[in-house]
Amino acid sequence: MKKLIPIILIVVLLGGQLAIIGSNVVSTNKHNEQVAYAALPEPLSGEIGIEQVLPNANQTALAWNSDAVLVQASMQIDWPTDWSVVTQGTLPPGGWVLLGYVSGNALLTMRIERGGGNIVQAVETPITDEVAADYLANPIDLSAANQPAVDAAKAFDIAQGGTFRQQCPAMRGQSYLHPAISAATGQWVWSFLYINRRANDPTQYMSGEMDWATGTIDQVVDADLPCDA
User: Fold this and answer.
1) Residue 69, beta-bridge partner list
2) Which among 118, 134, 94 has a CA at the least distance from the CA of 13?
3) What is the pLDDT of residues 107-163, one digit of tens each?
4) Cα angle, residue 96 at apex, residues 183 and 117 outer, rounded to 5°
């Protein structure tokens, strides 16, 4: 079950929707409820990633339920078609942060825009005991990562992603990262996906990892995917 959940979050980001629904997530009660969220007094500035939006998101989650636990976090980066307008080692402002909190038999999911850090949607979804236990088995502690999400994203893009995007920027306009436990090492890592859209075939992804403790980039797969002709 745990291996499916990051994929679900990425699908949610790709679709720009917040409803995480499906037989593996939602209980027999399929009613999703909007949740009130805290507004920022003013938009955040600078490069915005997961850690920058956490204070406001945590405030919203704890107002929702005081025992809420962060169990999922993903960041989508929208790259411009003209790759040359982004200086190497910087991130464009477009994209989303998606956070998930569990309390009891409920999952609170927030979609947050990276342009200013504002929450744009917060939804409570019922989940089963099994799914709740699966989430809570690996709560996310971002303070354990030596590289915050923004720094990790920039480092991976310099090492791998930039070259991949530049080969066919019109078809490779998004990248994603989320915390995960590496299947290869058993350690916490930043897990990366770079999209490779194709006109008439299923979407592909380049993937890779960055170890939270060492910053080592490894497990890079499909960096040589061809551009769609």
Assistant:
1) 102
2) 94
3) 999 999 999 999 999 999 999 999 999 999 999 999 999 999 999 999 999 999 999
4) 125
Residue with tokens 């679709």: 15
Provide CB contacts within 8 A for 7, sequence distance 6+: none
Question: What's the predicted TM-score (pTM) here?
Answer: 0.85
Six-digit token string for 125: 């979804």
Structural element, H or E, at residue 78:
strand 69-78
Tokens of 11: 């699908």
Determine the angle formed by the axes of helices 50-64 and 149-156, rounding to 10 degrees. Answer: 140
Q: Exposed e or buried b for every residue in 98-128, given b needs 16+ CB within 10 A?
A: bbbbbbeebbbbbbbbbeebbbebbbbbbbb
Kindly report the length of the chain: 229
Reported confidence tier of residue 19, pLDDT bands at 50, 70, 90:
very low
